[in-house]
Amino acid sequence: MEGRERVGGRVLTDRETFSRPIDLGASIITGIAADVNKGRRFDPSSTIFQQLGLKTKELEGECPIFDAVKRAKISKEMDRKIAGVFDGILDMCTNKALAFKAASGGKGVGKENFGDTVKELFESERALQEGDGEKVEDKQGAADEGGEEVVTSLRQLTEEDLRVLRWHYAHTEYGCSARLNEISLEHWNQDESEDGAGFGGPHVMVPGGYSRAMESLSDGLHVRTKACVKGIKYGDGKVEVTCSNPDDEGDECIVADSVVVTVPLGCLKRKKIEFDPPLPDWKQECIDRLGYGNLNKVVLEFKEEDDGNVFWEQGSNSVGDVMMFGMTSESESTCGRFFMFWNMKKVCGSPILIGLLAGEAAYEAEQEDNKLVPQAMGVLRNLFHDVTVPEPVSCRVTSWLSDEFSHGSYSFVAAGASGDDYDTLALPVSSLVHFAGEHTWRKNPDTVGGAMLSGIREAQSILRMFSRDVATVVDDMMFTLDASKDLEEGEEEEGDGWEEEEEDIPKVENPKFKGEKKAKKQKPRQQKIVGTVPYLSNADHAQAKEEIRNVYTYFEMRKGSEDFAELMGSLKSLDGKRAFVKQCIARGDKTNYLGALKEKHLGLLNSWILEFADAPLCTDFICDCIRLLNKLNLEIKDMKETKLGKTMRNLAQHQPVKVKKLVTYLLKQVSAVPAKADKEKERSASGDASETKEAKAPKIDEEEVKKLEQMREEIKRRKEEARRRHEEASKKFQEAARMIGVMDAAEPPSPRREKRKHRHSSSEKSKKARGDESGGEKRVDKKLAGEHRKQCVSYIKNLLKESLKEGKIDKEQFKAIVAKVWGKLEHHPSLGKDEEFLTNDRKGKIVKLIKQYVAKS
Ligand SMILES: Cc1cc2nc3c(=O)[nH]c(=O)nc-3n(C[C@H](O)[C@H](O)[C@H](O)COP(=O)(O)OP(=O)(O)OC[C@H]3O[C@@H](n4cnc5c(N)ncnc54)[C@H](O)[C@@H]3O)c2cc1C
């Protein structure tokens, strides 16, 4: 049931207003390749474009920032300096968040917000300056990357510096689609910092429009458009959904076994659907707590001059060769207003600019719709002051907040909320009402890919209840989308028989690699297929359904943990156990469930793990069990007494990498927790063994504080490490750039900028994107693919020759490395497409891979 007349929701391509399709909602696929090192998936929507043979355009090049007052591009030095200051501010905010957490005894989610904390930092810095006038000191994180300038500090910032700094604020507001003072200080970038969160690989735009993916997905499905859902009544094993009739003939009621609610969080917040009975408090509180913001776009199309040029390609501030450029603003209150423009001429070839409105500006935009185009023109005329800027021939302004079917743009972690809220929003109510949508997918919220994955998750969980065979298919689909699959077998995988086709390249005969390939091939992934799945064939299906219901009811009623044993003992099916473990993970922190589990039921949990450890399709369940164990702060003693230690050691040997990683982390955590006896000893040594229970309480807090201190130290160390690695990477990158003849190659983006670079990456720019008349579609051309391959392989060989000459590798290794490096590129979607394949970015990647493999050899 779809309220609008069209499918796609916040993915909306306008095909009428402009000469090319333009995306008014989502427009960037934020990662098209799994990053096995970070455990990141690729955005599944990229697969659809690949399958449809539709062109995507990688976001490349710098994003120069222009100063609104000086009407000129800010220098590279200043850009770096202020980016360093902003990183310093982020560091200070991280420390503040940790301090707040320590002050609360390590419990609870801080209500502190990002904006106010930054303000306070500035105020205290300024007060210090006015108070003692002492010499300006270096501040942590405000690094001078050039190495010549003096490290800057907040107290030294000029008005121009501040304008650039505010641009970074606007960029953060854009990434979160929220005002700075709404964003959680502690968890604002949980979708970047948590393990496996975020998508991997380059970001791309879709010249033919993102809606193509949604339309193709809905093709052949029975979607009832103009069916606005008004009420959901649930209970007695069924749901009744009331919705408007597409023919405006009053409301109708549809009865079903189960329902998946996928309306945006903005609609849930406004209670656009009446639930009967009302949603339980735990769900409603979560809906209220998690943030949901706004972002708007102003799209302007201009007429090309006779020579094919447009004004932004001319004059002293020409930006014709970049895909995006930033603008500072004179005042703080307007810093999100047109802080960035996308140059769509580089994406689709048409003379179109898209201005972004973030933070407060996104909200204001909805009230001053008719003023926005003149405002945008004012900004552009100010910037391109030495050329004629004509009036646009077409324009369009979005208003996502006023849209009754979205009420805003996307979710963010608001002050007082945390990543856990995404998990709780994903939980069903009464096992009848399920929830999906970007706001229910913790690892990739606010993305199209996250929304898609959440849909698959709910399909999987409902099918598990109603249909056994189909469920396994969905299970397998989910597994395929998992980046850990690449970890298991992607590394050394063979291509599609290129060795036979490519005479030029010798066959790989390095026994070392051969052996590895064989070993991997022997791993039968087909075992995951339907038929042998124990919980589907053995367990009574109705019972599984009943068990899930019992688990949800138990947790919803918030019963005490005393009858935990009874509940756990009654669960026989994998589904019941899975539901139990998931509920404990999602809710355990806020209740005493975890304590009870740790005290009495670890043995039972161990037996569950043993029962399903070797069963197919149970990896996710095993992972969840280990995640739960990780939450329990176990000691070595617990592991021994319950035989969990032995189980974990076994798992570490025989399970997929995903499980191994979790087990390793668990074992590390366990050995880091000092045994109770040691703690007692410490206490008696410090002479307070006779403390009363009450007197002991602050002691625990002290421990927490100590732990947090250690954590802070650890974070500092890691940051240092990351900074060092980044520096190294920059050097290597420059070196690589020099090797491939691009002396002024842009630096790779700092890892700290990820969230802010959320919707675009900043890699080295390449070719022009003009002249594509195919409506964005391009199919793989085999001949072209062969040419691309030849180009690449000879490039790899040329680079490797040096190492061969110097004796760093022998002939066999030479061949093997050529094959391995090519193996990493041969499945890239742009192979065989009518565009440059061996881009500077890719050359850089090749150099990096070669160095890696040569070092390994
Ligand atoms: C301006 C903007 C830019 C963005 N940029 C990006 C980007 O570059 N990359 C990216 O990955 N993501 C981006 N996003 C976010 C992305 O669009 C969303 O995360 C994603 O589309 C959410 O999908 P969903 O299915 O959860 O919700 P939606 O796409 O909103 O789908 C919900 C559906 O429910 C329907 N509905 C609502 N209420 C009712 C009702 N009562 N009855 C029946 N139907 C109802 C709606 O019409 C809609 O079709 C952007 C979003 C916006 C607004």
Q: Using the CA coordinates, give the radius of gyration.
A: 28 Å
Q: Count of DSSP helices?
A: 32
Q: Which molecules are bound besides the chains? A: flavin-adenine dinucleotide
Structural class: alpha+beta
Query: How many extended strands?
Result: 20
Question: What is the spatial order of strands in the main beta sheet?
Answer: 6-5-15-16-17-14-18
C-alpha end-to-end distance: 57 Å
Tell me what the structure shows.
Among the domains are: 66-205, no CATH class; 227-290 and 418-466, 3-Layer(bba) Sandwich (FAD/NAD(P)-binding domain), CATH 3.50.50; 296-399, Polyamine Oxidase, Chain A, domain 2, CATH 3.90.660; 534-673, no CATH class. By secondary structure, the protein is an alpha+beta fold. It is built from 32 helices and 20 strands. It starts with 12 loop residues before the first strand and ends with a helix. The chain is globular. Helix 19 (541-556) runs parallel beside helix 21. 47% of the residues lie in helices and 9% in strands. Strand 9 (238-244) and strand 10 (251-256) form a beta hairpin. The longest helix has 47 residues, at 693-739. The strands form six sheets. The chain has a seven-stranded mixed sheet with strand order 6-5-15-16-17-14-18. It binds flavin-adenine dinucleotide.
